[in-house]
Amino acid sequence: MARETRHTVCPYDCPDSCGITAEVDGDRILSFGPRADHPYTRGFLCPRGQDWPNRMQGPLRLRSPLLKDGSGWKSIGWREAIERTVEGLDRAVFRHGHRSVLYYSYAGNILKGNEAQELFPALLGGGTIAKGSLCGSEGLSGLEATDPSGPRPRPESVLESRGILLWGRNPAVTNVHFMPLLDRARKRGAFIGTVEVRTTPTTVFSDRAWIIRPGSDLALALYLCGRAIRRNGLPEGTCSGEAFSVLAFAVDRKRVLEETGLDGKGLDELETFVLETRPLSIWMGWGPQRARTGASLASVLDSLGILTGNRGIPGGGVVFNAEVEGLLPEGVFDVPGANPRTVSRNGMGKALLEADPPVEAAFIVRGNPVSQCGDAGSIRRFLENCPFSVCLDYRMSLTARCCSLVLPVSLPLERGGDFVSSYWHDIVQETSPVTEPPAGVRHELDVLTEVAAGLGLPDRFHPAFEAIGRHIRSLEWLEPLAPGMWRAHPKPAQGGPFRFPHCLDEPARPDASLRLVTVHARGYTNGQDLRQAGPPEVLPDAAFSPDDAKRLDLREGQAVTLVNTRGTFAARVRLDSGMAPGTVVVEQAAEGLNVLVSPETTPRGHSCINETWVDVVS
Ligand code: SF4
């Protein structure tokens, strides 16, 4: 076959949404790297992106349907696999109605075409589906409450900033293409400060880092707002400023020093930086908003932006997620009469175990809830006791291991005609297949269609998938930049005045001695850790501050067990002198970690993953 160059996009749930260029010869990938004409991500792919060829063609790829057989697995043909899936779903619907089927999908990737697959439970009648976010919706709620259509700086605006404040954001690991821009901004004179709960590659890169205790940043942000109000007053034409002032003035210096663990000099330096640097752009991270107070924190940081005169000025403003809206057509996903039962995603294990009518079939597509949701032990128990459970995946994930049947499906880089936008930059890209899926592997949408046909349901999936593509290609506010690449120029939304928060959510109360913070890793995103499919590894690291290690009599390398009312997790002690005390840090997706994680949700139904506490047993 002839050598061909193909452009596609990395669709991981990652803000960068990198363009990729691959050279292929048939199914052989000759080269695989960054797309050179992508305005933001040219230059390099992160280790997660570089690993795509290994995921597609490496030894851990599933290549035939697997049926649980005692404590092992046996390979079966596709015809039997589809028949078993249809039978399993049909039996549950016959016994208890459509709500007896759980349809679960979440965060395997951010392809727009995923929406087509979400038609499956609706066509079934609604089914049981999970609602609520494990990721960024809580912070977005906070910004929507204060300034829904407010000006949000684009990434390159930092080149006009004199100050850049990264608030719990770690772009050196989770938004790596921001780093070259930050570097250029610094060369143009910007000062980069970071508020964090531990030393990270980003705090090392920054000009100044303020390490605070986890959970104390709402008080810190309120204190800074109070100082800004005293200095600048309230801006004209805003709402609820007086009520917000009461909240902000309630946090005095003594309280903020106690809660954050900062010393007076450090707090003064932060205050001077925030109040006296203009333009200042504030970039909030994802970790701090995975808490009951996450939306409140976003609202207060947004307030800090306007109180310091940075809203809407070049190089200033407050950013969290910057989604490109309006890419999905309307009406295509409507199914009249669909009436699902919803369970809270983060706490769904207990809800599924107690559901009435019972859930007797689980259909999991692009999801790894045993690795990602809170109280994962309950989800595992639910799946292991569910009369029928099937997982569509490309490798044996923690969730797949708990199911009765695993169907090997294609990866996003094996399918074309889909689209990815970014929640950091404004580029929209179309996918094209780098290679065909390996023999024995089928496309997700085709599997769904065949199962639906077995249940007597129509193929609305492929028409919906095509409709998404037609809609996106027709949008006049997408400016073509190159083949399969557009820049979004959506019309600004009409909005009202800035609304300061007039009440704040209460944080969760600790129920053990150390806060467990789960952090992103360099090698994978969310539940995509390929190691889950491999042999068991050495104990994962749990990082402790030296103060806590001394108090708890822990030494480097020691095996310990983290424990709370939900379960236990074995780990190895790593001492980290850059951490605030009162915290233990473990990389997310470590096998068994989410057994400990809180299943609680915020008042808006999103996860409070970072409000989990544990004790340590040596
Ligand atoms: S994971 Fe993110 S940074 Fe890495 S290649 Fe994919 S989109 Fe780019």
Describe this protein with a few key phrases.
3 domains, binds iron/sulfur cluster, 21% strand, Rossmann fold, 618 residues, alpha/beta, 26 strands, Barwin-like endoglucanases, eight-stranded mixed sheet, 21 helices, six-stranded mixed β-barrel, Dimethylsulfoxide Reductase, domain 2
Structure description:
The relative contact order is 0.18. The chain is 30% helix and 21% strand. It contains 21 helices and 26 strands. The strands form 5 sheets. The protein has an 8-stranded mixed β-sheet, with helices on both faces. Helix 3 packs across helix 19 (444-454) and helix 6 crosses helix 14. With 618 residues, it is α/β, with parallel strands linked by helices. The N and C termini lie far apart (60 Å). The model has no long low-confidence stretch (mean pLDDT 94). Strand 15, helix 18 and strand 16 form a beta-alpha-beta unit. It has 3 domains: 66-134 and 337-429 and 438-475, Rossmann fold (3-Layer(aba) Sandwich), CATH 3.40.50; 137-319, 3-Layer(aba) Sandwich (Dimethylsulfoxide Reductase, domain 2); 514-617, Beta Barrel (Barwin-like endoglucanases), CATH 2.40.40. The structure holds iron/sulfur cluster. The site of iron/sulfur cluster (SF4) has 13 residues, from helix 1.
